[in-house]
Each structure stands twice: as structure tokens, then as C-alpha cells.
Amino acid sequence: METAATAAPEAVIVAIDGPSGTGKSSTSKAVAAQLGLSYLDTGAQYRAITWWMVNNGIDLTDPTAIAAVAGKAEIVSGTDPADPTITVDGTDVAGPIRTAEVTSKVSAVSAVPEVRARITELQRSIATSAERGIVVEGRDIGTTVLPDADLKIFLTASPEARAARRSGELKGADVKATQEALAKRDHADSSRTTSPLAKADDAVEVDTTELTLQQVIECVVTLVEEKRAGK
Ligand SMILES: Nc1ncnc2c1ncn2[C@@H]1O[C@H](COP(=O)(O)OP(=O)(O)O)[C@@H](O)[C@H]1O
Ligand SMILES: Nc1ccn([C@@H]2O[C@H](COP(=O)(O)OP(=O)(O)O)[C@@H](O)[C@H]2O)c(=O)n1
Q: What stretch of H or E contains 137?
């Protein structure tokens, strides 16, 4: 007897945006792994270009100097959610892009339109070549990078919860100082002219303050499955 062919599920594109510490990376990785999708951390790409600029002595107080070298670094993102990678000119920078120095400087670099144009193009080409689909997380994915995404999620959480989560990761970091640093980055990312951090009109907002990570993952997986079922 012939077995009926099962159609491969269509590639699904999921955009997850929100400020720091709302759970974007942990949720996106887990959802992608559970659903067999690729995963892209766009913040890591902005951190990588910032790392290159710091290493090459670029004056990060000067947007013209940043714009002039926006195309120099070759950034490659590995999109396996079980082992996401990021290299700059062939060097693994997964560790160095998480230093306090890069974190404090990334908003100045990511605000420069030439940097955004370059990284946005890279993100779109990665997303369109993901055969089974992809979960892309960042700040402007639903609004600018992938406005036609099948599902858009905007994660939020209280400033206190976000700071507690972040300082938990940076062992020994002061919660109050972490909260202040987050507020400063939120302000810079939300007030820049080009493609600021914002919720897309058609994004589903999920407040994660009182939810466990597992609950957030389940919520997003359910929303993806509902989309696929055409609900
Ligand atoms: N709902 C949650 N409840 C408690 N901790 C969480 C939750 N979501 C994420 N975390 C933890 O908070 C930290 C920051 O999460 P992360 O996914 O890196 O956030 P983002 O990518 O938005 O900055 C991680 O240590 C993660 O395990
Ligand atoms: N789509 C994106 C993603 C990140 N970014 C920038 O990159 C920075 C680092 O992003 P991230 O996602 O690694 O930040 P965390 O949430 O991990 O702290 C942000 O503060 C933004 O300045 C952006 O401008 N657009």
C-alpha cells in the first residue's frame, strides 16, 4: 500500500523583539530547537561589529568615522540553535562581544544608519535562506528587518526583573547599577532615528515578569503552531 506523502511544513519566520533581559535569546533558542528552525541573534551581530571597531581604534563618539568603516568587518553567524556561533573575519568572538566595554558602546554603533543598512541586509539574506524557517531576535525585526514575518512577538518585563536576571548572569554585579545601565541602553535604542526598538503594530506582546522561562517558551510555541494551523 502506498503511504501518503506528508508535505514538508512551510518555512515559518518568527520575529522576537524587546529590550534587554526580557528573555529573547533564551526563548528564541528553545523555540527554534523545539520546532526544528534556525536561530539568529541579531544583537550578537551588532556586538560583533562594535567589537571590531573597538579593536581597530575607531572613534565611537564620531558617527562619520563609524559610517566610514561600516562595511569592513566580515561577520558570519551560525544559526543552529543548539550551537549558535559568531565570527568576525574568521575569529570566534562569542566571548569578547559580551564584555562590559562592548555592551556600553554597542548602542552608539547600532544607531548609525550605514551600520544598520549593512547588518539588516545580512539578516534578511540569512532569514530567506533558512529552509525550514527561522526565529530571529532583536530590536527591529518585526518593524524593519522582516515586516512580513509570519509571527511577531514583543517581549517585555519590569525593569526590576530584567536587572535581576542580568545581574544574576554577571556574577556579583550590582542590581541597581545593572538597572541603570539597562535604562540607559533602552533609552538610546528606543530614541535613535533609524529603526528604533519598537513593538510592531501586529506583534503579540508578552509580559514575562511573572512567567517562568518555560511558560514563555510554551506560549510562543503555541502561537507558532496556531499560525501554522491557520488559526
Ligand atoms: N521568564 C523568565 N524568568 C526568569 N528568568 C528568565 C526568564 N527569561 C529569561 N530569563 C533569564 O534571564 C537572563 C536573560 O535572558 P535572555 O534570554 O538573555 O534575555 P534577552 O535576550 O532579552 O536579553 C537569562 O539568564 C535567562 O535565563
Ligand atoms: N535588531 C537589533 C538587535 C540589537 N541591536 C543593538 O545591539 C545591542 C545589543 O543587543 P543584545 O540583544 O545583544 O542585547 P542584550 O539583550 O543581550 O543585552 C542593543 O542594545 C542594540 O543597540 C539593535 O540595534 N538592533
A: strand 133-138
